[in-house]
């Protein structure tokens, strides 16, 4: 893929009150899209405002990272939320972030679920429909196309596409993949890859060749327009810079998908 293009996204604003997890300022100098926590798994009004202002200043696209209501579990615990209630909570989160995005002279440009919700809507059609209903209910689509970022082949992207929302496929260089092209659950050993050189090699392979090595060692096809760089890992910003440099050296152009 000599003409390969990819977006770099990162989870930002993952703090609450005096507690901070992500180096937002450093990551916003590297990534092209910012998945901003909307208060349900992390984030608070002041953090959301600050991240939106920094993102707008640097030309980084602002995305709503919506989640189950689970501050204590960082949105990574499985939850059973009635579809109508979930749709309202998705709309609420997008609306909250939109206030601060507008104040910064920007807008919410896409939506990406977080954690347990992200994994749930890969196969759960009812929860996927609730997320999409919430996106439509938020009214953010009235300001322009609102892409949905998610795993290739997921129910979420299928449902979003069915109602006319743009869909964007995503991959993870620092997460282990199964032979079926799905993510290995975080509760399993070696689900997260910590070796920087391995992460960088996988990032280039995903962006340039459309493949990644699965847990058994065999290559698996991965369709991705965006590559996630996790912001809650030690040295995330430095690793993101190295990934971006390696992509450039491999002839991959880095630019936002919106």
Question: What would you note in describing this structure?
Answer:
By secondary structure, the protein is α/β, with parallel strands linked by helices. It has a single domain, classed as Glycoside hydrolase/deacetylase (TIM Barrel, Alpha-Beta Barrel). Helices cover 37% and strands 19% of the residues. It contains eight helices and twelve strands. Strands 1, 4, 5, 6, 7, 8, 11 and 12 form an eight-stranded parallel β-sheet that branches. It has a two-stranded antiparallel ribbon with strand order 2-3. The longest helix is centred in the middle third of the chain and has 21 residues. Keywords: ATP-binding, Hydrolase, Nucleotide-binding. This is 5-oxoprolinase subunit A. It comes from Kitasatospora putterlickiae.
Entry keywords:
TIM Barrel, single chain, 8 helices, alpha/beta, two-stranded antiparallel ribbon, 258 residues, 8-stranded parallel β-sheet, 19% strand
Unreliably modeled segments? none
Question: Rg, please?
Answer: 17 Å
Mean of pLDDT: 94
Which percent bin holds the helix content? 25-40%
CATH architecture: Alpha-Beta Barrel
How far from one another are the termini? 21 Å
The helix-strand sequence is EEEHEHEHEHHEHEHEEEHE
How many strands appear in the DSSP assignment?
Answer: 12
Task: Note the topology.
Layout: E1 5-12, E2 15-16, E3 19-20, H1 24-27, E4 33-37, H2 45-57, E5 61-66, H3 83-103, E6 108-113, H4 115-123, H5 125-137, E7 148-150, H6 155-162, E8 167-172, H7 196-209, E9 211-213, E10 219-221, E11 226-228, H8 236-249, E12 253-254
Parallel strand pairs: 1-4, 1-11, 1-12, 4-5, 5-6, 7-8, 8-11
Antiparallel strand pairs: 2-3, 9-10
Helix pairs in contact: 2-3, 3-5, 4-5, 5-6, 7-8
């Amino acid at each position: 893929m000599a003409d390969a293009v990819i977006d770099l996204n990162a989870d930002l604003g993952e703090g609450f009150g005096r507690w901070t997890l992500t180096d937002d300022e450093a990551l916003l100098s590297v990534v092209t899209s910012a998945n901003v926590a909307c208060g349900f798994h992390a984030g608070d009004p002041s953090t959301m405002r600050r991240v939106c202002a920094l993102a707008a200043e640097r030309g980084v696209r602002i995305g709503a990272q919506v989640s189950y209501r689970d501050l204590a579990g960082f949105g990574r615990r499985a939850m059973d939320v009635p579809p109508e209630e979930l749709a309202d909570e998705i709309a609420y989160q997008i609306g909250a972030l939109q206030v601060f995005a507008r104040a910064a002279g920007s807008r919410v440009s896409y939506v990406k679920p977080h954690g347990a919700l992200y994994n749930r809507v890969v196969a759960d059609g009812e929860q996927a429909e609730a997320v999409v209903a919430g996106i439509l209910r938020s009214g953010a689509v009235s300001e322009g196309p609102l892409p949905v970022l998610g795993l290739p082949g997921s129910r979420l992207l299928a449902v979003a596409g069915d109602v006319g929302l743009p869909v964007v496929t995503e991959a993870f260089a620092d997460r282990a993949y199964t032979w079926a092209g799905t993510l290995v659950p975080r509760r399993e050993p070696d689900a997260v890859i910590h070796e920087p050189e391995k992460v960088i090699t996988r990032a280039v392979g995903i962006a340039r060749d459309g493949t990644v090595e699965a847990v058994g060692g065999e290559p698996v096809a991965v369709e991705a327009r965006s590559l996630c760089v996790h912001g809650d890992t030690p040295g995330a910003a430095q690793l993101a810079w190295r990934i971006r440099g390696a992509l450039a050296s491999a002839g991959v152009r880095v630019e936002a998908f919106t």
